[in-house]
Amino acid sequence: MCAYCGSKILLGGKRLNELRFCNDECSNNGQALTSALVPQISGADVRLLATRIHSGPCPKCSGHGPVDVRVSHQVWSFLLITQWRNVQQVCCRRCAAKSQLGSLCFSVVLGWWGIPWGILMTPVQVGRNLLGLIRPPDPSRPSERLMNLSRLMITERMLLDRQTVSAD
Fold first, then answer.
1. How far apart are CA 124 and CA 155, in angstroms?
2. Phi, psi of 59 (to 5 degrees)
3. 83-114 pLDDT, tens per residue?
4. Nearest to 54 by CA among 45, 62, 40, 65
5. Does 12 share its domain with 75?
6. Cα–Cα distance between 136 and 96 in angstroms, integer?
7. Distance between CA 158 and CA 104 in Å, rounded?
8. How far lies 58's CA from each of 80, 91, 156, in Å?
9. Within this chain, do residues 127 and 68 fall inside the same structural domain, yes or no?
10. CB 3.0 to 4.6 Å from 68: which of 33, 34, 137, 165, for a disulfide?
11. Its pTM surpasses 0.85
12. Cα–Cα distance measured from residue 113 to residue 125, given in angstroms and rounded to the nearest whole number
């Protein structure tokens, strides 16, 4: 499972110390999680930020929450080329459903046209979108993904503050 986005890693991935990431983007984003600052972040601060995000307005539509980290899954392929990706976003359930339905349709139309990965990955990505639609995160509390994102946001803020202090 990817240490940054939580996606299941079928093949490959990228290791950073004891953590495993699904791709370079997640690896780069997740490096702050392994920073020396992580032990300095209190669980209470992480929970407070995650709760604020969770109970706040949706960053996409400004509608009512709960807001959480939602993932939509896409695949496209043509002959021997296949690409799949998981798009993580912080939004309400309504915005997530739109994104997941769009990704599901995209994958159904454009996913099948590659051999062998298009044929194999299209049902996987379609199934992931269906699961996301049927089983969203628990609306009563922030998910583990939102907690990780909150931890990352606090870490990035601390790194920026340190850079600002050292630049002065």
1. 33
2. -65, -20
3. 999 999 999 999 999 999 999 999 999 999 99
4. 65
5. no
6. 9
7. 38
8. 39, 5, 22
9. yes
10. 137
11. no
12. 14
